[in-house]
Amino acid sequence: MNVKIMVPLALVIVVLVVLASGFYVVDERQQVIITQFGEPVDAAVTDPGLHFKVPFIQTANFFDKRFLEWDGDANQVPTRDKRFIWVDTYARWRISDPQVYLERLRGDELTAQSRLDDILDGETRNAVARHDLVEVVRTSNRQPDTSEVDEEETGVLDEITTGRVDITEAIQTIAGPRLLELGIELMDFRFKRINYVDEVQRDVFDRMIAERQRIAQRYRSEGEGEAARIGGEKERELQRIQSEAYRMHRRPVESPTQKPRGSTRTPTTVTRRSTLS
Amino acid sequence: MKFRVFDNDVDLSDFLPPDIPMKGILIGIVLVIGLVTAWNTVYQIEPEEAGVVLRLGKYVGTKNPGLHFKLPFIDQMVRVPVERQLKQEFGFRTEAAGVRTTFSPAAFLGESLMLTGDLNVAVVEWIVQYRIADPYAYLFKVRNVEETFADMNEAVMRGVVGDRTVTEVLTVGRQDIELNAQIALQELCDQYENGIRVEQVVLQDVNPPDPVKPSWDEVNQAQQQRDRLINEARADYNSVIPRASGEAQQTILQAEGYALNRVNRSEGDATRFKSLYEEYRRAPDVTRRRMYLETMGRVMVKVPGKVILDEKAQGILPLLPMDGLRRSANLVGGGGD
């Protein structure tokens, strides 16, 4: 082939390749920071679609734009009232400032996760240690529903001044600004699971058993008591019925003509009626 | 294969198809490209799905079920089952639809064991049914949506259970818990913008922890026992009291009957006496005389021998037949003495 054609053709191809390497696609899920020799230029590209950068010189660094998960390890933490519990937490976060995120954490999610571990686990430990167990477990001062079973069986809910949500929100308030310095926005932080450590759990089970046995005992004695009361009532009724019949049997005979105005007869009739009821 | 070909030093030209015209090859290539393009252009959305279309990574729309076209290679389509009811299980796993196989519960105790508000422990199993209401949010707002949703469920359920006593959780509070969990979960979904609509939270088995179970059964038993004792006492009461009151009634009625009998009879006598008295009062002489005569008439017939004298008679002696009179006097005297 002719060199005259070959050279421009090659040039065109090279230019096309270079240009093509300048284009990049940003997905709905992504945001991009363009760096030039490692230095970020401009703000993050967050709107999805086709974008262009200077080929070769600039690099596109892709980050997730979505809410990301953080799942804390279950930690054994003592509460203020000296009970040991496992606290398992989770959080949702997102890269709110990819530029800072890139600078401070090298844009590496593993690094980010471990920083989240450090901050959130530490704050969880602090917060839980500052509160009683009941405050970590409960959310509100809702009172138990005693409409169907009485209070003794239903149990009592202790009053709290701070609740689960207050505590997690407090943790979020403390951890939030610290994470913001890393380009991370903490969207939500929650206690996922709270459980007793094994030794405590055994004690709790024993207590639950004792509690139930107490209730069972009450039922049994209630039954016996009620049965005895009914027995007594039966005896009394029997005596009353029989004696009243005897009294009526022995009462002075009155003339039927007296009946209409008979003031003496009316009370006896009433007593007799009550016997039958 | 390839190596052997080289080892045997086969002439590769042998494998070329004999003498196909360039035109034919070109047509073939165009045809293949055309087919691939067509394959990439037309797509069908099933009735239960929605298709989310991205053009060079940018969201351009959601397609409803039916046949659709897109730009080949540039557009990307993601199917989202919006109409399907999805389900997550906590504390157990269904292995196959229809046959519910629960694995060893211990394996999922982590999910189901939770603290109640009175610092007791309950094992709560539940399912959540949900639907993808907003495919865009579902796909692009949250990474690992399903896993996140599971975490949300656990946190919410524990929050709700943590505000109730163990008795409430295990007995009366079920519906209340389901409802509250559903509301709280939906709020959280809205906050996360994950596009999920929570249809229903349904509690499955809710139990006390295994070591505590026997004592719960004991309470149930005691309750039954109480009811049984009370019922027995009532039965006893019922077997005695109605009969006794019936018998008492009988005594009274009998007595009343006797009284009535006496009263009526006496009244009958009294009425008769009264009418007599009335007559007597109106005409005492006549009545007295009538009574005398009636009485005499009644009495005299019983007397065998009668001697009737005039009150002016001087002596009775001449008329006295001694033997006959004595006999009858003896008879009368026998009654009188």
How would you characterize this protein structure?
Chain A is built from eight helices and nine strands. Chain A has helices at residues 3-22, 98-105, 109-129, 133-137, 151-154, 164-180, 198-250, 265-276, and strands at 23-26, 30-36, 39-45, 49-52, 58-64, 68-71, 75-78, 84-95, 184-196. In chain A, the strands form three sheets. In chain A, strands 6, 7, 8 and 9 form a four-stranded antiparallel sheet that branches. In chain A, strands 3-2-5 form a three-stranded antiparallel sheet, with helices on one face. In chain A, a hairpin with a 5-residue loop joins β7 and β8. In chain A, α3 (109-129) packs across α6 (164-180) and α7 (198-250) runs antiparallel to α8. Chain A is elongated, with a radius of gyration of 41 Å. The model of chain A is unreliable at 258-277 (pLDDT under 50). Chain B has 337 residues and is of the alpha+beta class. Chain B has three domains: 2-80, no CATH class; 86-208, 2-Layer Sandwich (Tetrahydropterin Synthase, Chain A); 211-299. Helices cover 53% and strands 17% of the residues of chain B. In chain B, strands 6, 7, 8 and 9 form a four-stranded antiparallel sheet that branches. In chain B, a hairpin with a 2-residue loop joins β2 (50-55) and β3 (58-63). Chain B is rod-shaped, with a radius of gyration of 58 Å. Residues 333-337 of chain B have low confidence and may be disordered. The chains are: A alpha+beta (277), B alpha+beta (337). At the A-B interface, β6, α4, β9, α7 and α8 of A face β7, α5, α6, α7 and α8 of B.
